[in-house]
Amino acid sequence: MKNKGTFLAAFLLLAGIASSNAQDIDKNKVPAAVKSAFMKAYPKATDVDWEMKGSNYEADFDLAKVDYKATYTSAGKAISFEKDIPNSQLPALIVKNIKAKYPQGRIDDVDLINTGGKISYKVDIEGTPDVNVWYTADGKFVKELAD
């Protein structure tokens, strides 16, 4: 019986840690400054869902059938946005670097990330194993995380 309690406590702790990174929130709890900045930048956004990312607000939405994310401070200042792009829009140097580093991998999904005007790319690669990799706009490898 003691093991069940320990297991439950460990499970709840892990669940709390996993959910602490991002938490869905109701749009009514998003500050007016954030909603205003978002609507000004993306007036035609649809299917908007809000999350807390630390102390920031992230909108996950569609725009012209493309998936986007935009992150704002609580004061409504834009921090970053990202959008899905076709694989064909990934810079050739990054494609070349990926093929060299992951010869058995297949590019599955590409996100363009704009943080304060600085462009980077997140690329989901299916292979053995599946990974997510980040590159700068000029093709420099940034990091890799298991998918």
Automatic annotation (TrEMBL):
Domain Putative beta-lactamase-inhibitor-like PepSY-like residues, every copy: 57-142
Q: Which UniProt keywords apply?
A: Signal
Kindly indicate where the leader peptide sits in this chain: 1-22
According to the lineage, what is the superkingdom? Bacteria
UniProt key word Signal:
yes
KW RNA-binding (keyword) present: no
Q: Name one Pfam family in it.
A: PepSY_like
Checking InterPro entries in the record gives: PepSY-like
This protein is called PepSY-like domain-containing protein
Organism of derivation: Pedobacter endophyticus
Lineage of the species this protein comes from: Bacteria, Pseudomonadati, Bacteroidota, Sphingobacteriia, Sphingobacteriales
